[in-house]
Design goal:
With 319 residues, this protein is mostly helical. It has helices at 17-47, 49-78, 84-115, 118-123, 126-137, 144-153, 158-165, 177-190, 198-208, 213-223, 234-244, 256-267, 271-284, 287-303. The N and C termini lie far apart (124 Å).
């Protein structure tokens, strides 16, 4: 008679291979979701479209697997089987899967849709519109509208965000509409004419990030041959008026950011030093200074009526 082993007849309490395989496959879902999130993060940080697309596909597949796994767990719970071991990995995977959806909705979808509502944009202040552009373009692969708005409402905090958003585009894609709007926005914000590629702008910002926006404007005017200080001295105001009037009415301004920032600097000044500079320009100023004085006076009169000075029309008479 054959001898029986000592544990003969005792049930094997080790988990069966099927249960072990189920637990392993359940914990695989968090790993799949984490891989999808890693691909999304790599695509966003480095600007890789293939990584972004692959991450979205992986997360979509993980969502289908999560739905199937939750259905299986619910079925096991209804049949009163032990499904508690499966709840934890599925809950972790579901939470990780929902996280990028929440970030995408609140950080990209919601502000991007708000930018398409022109009625709402017209009612917002420049600071609110700037914040909306900052929120949405960090995740947008084609922030065309954000660049257009930041050309007029951007400030010093917009420059690094624009440079960051340019990571999706080639090094110097001069044929791209979005690229041209991005470089225009940087030039209007910084008053700098240089910067043919994203690396050039990144290098410039790294060297000038500690300077104020006003200092950026002054550096830009100095690079173009206009000596301007941050004070309210008459010579600086006359130079700003010359920048405003340097281009006749029927001529295209090849560097409009210089005129734009000259207006912004003049608008920051009190009317008294500007009036004194305008009177000096009328007496012995250059044609550009006289034309700039005329444009400034008419603009302020139309906007708020702050100046009582009335100048003749000089756009056509001065060449």
């Amino acid at each position: 008679m054959t001898a029986q082993p000592a544990d003969f007849g005792v049930p094997d309490r080790r988990p069966c291979n099927r249960a072990r395989a189920w637990r392993q496959s359940t914990w695989t879902l968090p790993a799949v979701v984490g891989g999808g999130i890693a691909l999304l993060a790599a695509g966003e940080l480095i600007g890789l479209l293939w990584a972004l697309g692959l991450g979205i596909c992986v997360l979509c597949l993980a969502g289908l697997l999560l739905c199937a796994a939750w259905v299986k767990v619910a079925h096991a719970a209804i049949r009163r089987r032990d499904a508690r071991r499966r709840w934890l990995p599925l809950s972790v995977a579901t939470a990780c899967w929902l996280a990028p959806l929440g970030v995408g909705y609140f950080a990209w979808w919601q502000p991007t849709q708000a930018l398409h509502d022109w009625n709402a944009i017209e009612s917002e202040s420049p600071a609110e519109l700037r914040e909306l552009c900052h929120r949405s373009m960090l995740w947008d692969i084609d922030p065309h509208d954000q660049f257009v708005h930041l050309r007029s409402c951007g400030d010093a905090s917009s420059a690094p965000r624009i440079i960051w958003a340019m990571r999706w585009m080639p090094a110097a894609d001069v044929q791209s509409c979005t690229w041209n709007h991005a470089t225009d926005a940087l030039r209007f914000i910084t008053n700098q004419s240089s910067g043919a590629s994203r690396s050039d702008w990144a290098r410039w910002y790294r060297d000038n990030r500690d300077r104020t926006q006003l200092q950026w404007w002054i550096d830009g005017f100095t690079a173009e041959g206009y000596s301007i200080s941050a004070g309210t001295d008459k010579q600086s105001v006359l130079t700003l008026l010359a920048v405003v009037g340097r281009v006749p009415a029927e001529t295209t301004d090849l560097k409009p950011w210089l005129t734009h920032n000259a207006w912004r600097m003049l608008d920051r000044l009190a009317p008294e030093p500007v009036e004194a500079a305008i009177l000096a320009a009328l007496v012995d100023g250059t044609p550009a200074q006289r034309l700039g004085a005329d444009r400034y006076t008419r603009r302020r009169r139309r906007a708020a009526g702050q100046l009582s000075l009335c100048l003749p029309r000089l756009d056509r008479s001065i060449r």
